[in-house]
Fold:
Amino acid sequence: MPYPRGSEAEQFRQALIAASSKGQPLAAIGANNAIAARVGVDAGFDALWVSSLEVSAALGLPDENVLASQDLQCVVQALRRGADLPIIVDVDNGGGAVAFSRRIAFELASACAAGLCLEDSAYPKVNSFATHRAQRLAEPTLTGAQIRAIRNIAGPELVLIARTETLVCGGTSAEALARAEHYVAAGADAILVHSTDPSGRQSLDVAAHWSGSAPLVVITTAFPHLSLYELGAAGFAMAIYANQLSRAALAAMRDVARIFTDTGRFADLQLPTIRELIELIPPETAA
Structure:
């Protein structure tokens, strides 16, 4: 789904609306480098997701508000070299401050991101699946102020997804939906009610009760058994597969390293050729 650069955000926004009405959700794949971006393009994904977990892990950092806006900018620029797909950036809780949200919106719009996702976790955030510390919610008034600040800086040049961690923090679907309505009123283009329920029933229940005007987005990490078709039928406009490529790469690297440790050679492995690696990003496309 390549877009002319100047109209990318608006066309992505319209694609989300159309996907919601047709029950045919877009699929976004997590990518933290140009190789993953190229894999996403070749597999037919509709968008790329810059996951704070993937970027943090690749840099050897915890997923706890440690990333700087420049770290995310660099990833967006790398993905642009490997793919012409809309790029959505996970900006966590926007540093827990309106001023930081304003800055990151300006810098990501300048880097040609198509959208960003702001969550309502309290600063410092913790990954939704972490076990060493519990997630806490920020005041909805703060998240609303951050949304308005991002909209004032970026205007229509960024698709803004508002994500609530209400269910992750033990809240009810009704509480999550109330926050979602508040964020739409503040200027969000789409809503993501995150859930770590492995059955997927929490997310399906949210979709069944959502009556707002903004399209619904879902992150599927906890419930991979639900197909894209099922998520579309439930009412979701986009499904985000946030970290699957990094996890697959980790599994493959471990297997290859283990085989070398056992045999002392790489010769017996069915690896892609060097030419395949080179041709992922042809020299004439590199900037």
Observations:
- The first strand starts at residue 26 and ends at 30.
- The two ends are 22 Å apart (CA to CA).
